[in-house]
Records
---
Amino acid sequence: MKQSNTRNSDYTYSPSTSCVHAGTLRDPISGGVNTPIFPSSAIDYRTKDIRYPRNFNTPNNDAVAKKLATLEGTEKALLLSSGMAAIAIGIMALVKPGEHIVFQKDLYGGTLALIEQELPKRNISYTFVDATKINELKEAIIEHTALIYIETPSNPLLNIIDIKSVTHIAKHCNIKTMIDNTFASPINQNPAQLGCDLIMHSATKYLGGHSDFCAGALAGSSDIIEQCRLLGTMYGCSLNASDLALLERSMKTLAIRVEKQNHNAMEIAHYLQDHPAISTVYFPGLITHPGHIIAKEQMHGFGGMMSFELKNEDKSAISRFLDSLNIIIPAGSLGGVESLITSPALTSHKLIGEHGRQSYGIKDNLLRLSVGIENTEDLINDLSFALKDI
Ligand SMILES: *Cc1c(COP(=O)(O)O)cnc(C)c1O
């Protein structure tokens, strides 16, 4: 393959090939196989487009954007300084003051904070719904609804929203749809193929994949991404050249990482489901999961995220369990090569209080596991050892 995806534009390569090759701008000076890092902030203005790092039009941004757009099957993509920047810019690009948004109620904590603290200031109204109930979502649509926003699989209970049903309703009502596709990654789910207008990723998670920098991404039609680019330029949310280069390198192994994470998670979910110290496992790959059939239909893999509850509801049981793990690290964030575990009640969902958690079905003894790429048996042995006396 010479310059990836340019030889025959009608032919789409499989995701693992696109991960490695799509978008790469080979170094014309040395003949090197990688995109060079272009850090200049002062660029000759006598060119066709005025280039400037904040304008999202450096070669490093173009290279990663092309890779992501290829993986998501969209016309364009944009890389931003964080997942939250991507969410804020995406919502602002699609919704005007005076309009209304229908939000799924179980969203990432940062998204909930943005909605409740920022949208009212911008005269944007909203309704939260249980988006697993399509009728509830339908009934929340009002005359000036401009956007439906979903996140599937959701955090931390891995609820599955039927993307096709949502986009079908939205299109019928002339409403745009935006999805947080972070948990699935473009390897496991491509919402544009199911009719979604704007896809968002916290690239801090699976796209970056090594828990060592923060970035965000948007993917969609040329029109929508251009609106996002203009807003992102004004608000100054671009990603710097070094992190773009890191992201490009990380994404070359995205498919192989996610395939291993899918495999590990499936094995671990089955192991935990049969373990006497565990009461419930939330993983869309299990046939007992309420969203399993929809997940099977709309995802290419079930992902590396799961949650589970310890039977022993004692607070000390959780600390003993976490203290006994040797490989799996108790830490926030997710999607990296290393397996991480968190207690949503003590981290992501601490601020909403016990009553808030109850309304989402998040118990104090719930643990969320982000499965890494370690050896499957080593991970199961780690869990087995830590669960021994629980
Ligand atoms: C982490 C995360 C975000 C926010 O992304 P940042 O890169 O931390 O700004 C949004 N949505 C989901 C599902 C996430 O996990």
---
Amino acid sequence: MPSAADQPTADFSWSAEEIRRVGHEVADWIATYLTTLPASPVFHPVPTDVAERLLAEPVPERGERVDAILRRFESEIGNYPFGNGHPRFSAWVNSPPAVIGVYAQALAAAMNPSVAGGNHAAVWIEREVLQWFKSIFGFPPESMGLLVSGSSAAAITGLGVARHSAATRRGWDMRCDGAHIVDASGKPVRMLVYETAEAHSCHQKAIELLGIGSAQLRVVPSDGELSMRVEALDAMLTADIATGALPVAVIASAGTVNTGVIDPLPAIADVCAKHGVWMHVDGGYGAPAIMTAEYRAELAAIGRADSVGIDAHKWMYVPVDAGVVLVRDAKLMRDTFSLVPPYLRSDDDKHGVQGPPWLSEFGSEQTRPFRALKVWMALRYFGTSGYASLIAHDIAMARALAARVRASPDFELWEPQGLSIVCFRATPASIAGDDDATDALNQRILAAVQLGGEAFLSSTVLRGRTWLRSCIVNPGTQLDDIAAVFDTIAKTLRSFS
Ligand SMILES: *Cc1c(COP(=O)(O)O)cnc(C)c1O
């Protein structure tokens, strides 16, 4: 017997009144969540019994009432976040959502278009957002791009075009004949991709997926600051080209995820131009800093790249996911992905049903979400000058943390401190010179801090050693948070001595 709480299982259409009632409840929850987060513990894991209960649940057979579903959300989901958004959270590169982006996501879902193509607003908004990104990052207006899930997808897309471009120059039809290029005499041609050991792992994944293979990844030495040694890149390219290998791309970081250091982009662009090699910039974390006065010049050479990936869901505070890939050569991008016979191409139908060339011709996805709306609304809301001050604030907070570390005899600061990332480690005199003990101590500190609920940061490995890592991409983080985070870490260290 169905209980009174059950409702008909196929009640698809809601009345306007019901939509409003539930919407107000959801908005209430969001308002409470976002404004009380700073007073909650930064993080606590999902209790074992809750996780086990979730995994043990059978597929719902009868529909449940919406209020019951919302209560489940509140008690078992909404109260176990990963900590991001909390002003004392600075792990990985995870930012809080701009509230307008939260609502934009609901509005986009209400329209629920497939943004494969066509003459509807979502297509034009995505194209407008792409024009804005081209303008911010110095790409020509006739270049192309797409909104994608993130810099990982941007890497697959950008490096996919790079691979197509390199193969085509060798007279090889990659799309038809696959990734095993052979030259005129039937000898295999080795494709190569260049990056430093500091480059994000998503590029290795992309290279494996593109059939190039990680053995073809050439690791360019980095200097003491962990940024690319360009004369080494130049020499490697010269030597590899002399052997008949085919360099496909050089990956340069506009802010590494480990330390925030920026590879020497103008010099890398020069070397790529000299050898005719594709330059892909990984701007997943740092690229938005181009909007600040301080980093505008240093990041300007992003505009010389052949492709770039940017994560608006990181340092532009747009809710996940909101990645952007830009590709300088629009025709090459379309030639890499388009699977529409030429007689169906829609170049001449800007004002008809088909609209401008379909976005699905420029990437691997067909049905695509209306990601652009949240980016469009956030950029309208903040403007580039608003972003400049929010990003500058995050950088100032990182420098404040670095200053505290520098002032403490028990801690060592990784220098140079890059963008809004601070790497540091406890180096108490009692274990001075013992690297293994120092690694172990910092791992213990990290685990205790992460579970303690007062602060949350992550760690990384630099030159083979464990460092604590704080990446501040939260405009809500203030000086008292920085002080509290550092004090928590220092207190944890003392508790171990
Ligand atoms: C996050 C990040 C990536 C990967 O991007 P996703 O959005 O996670 O796919 C690549 N590079 C850098 C520098 C990043 O911060």
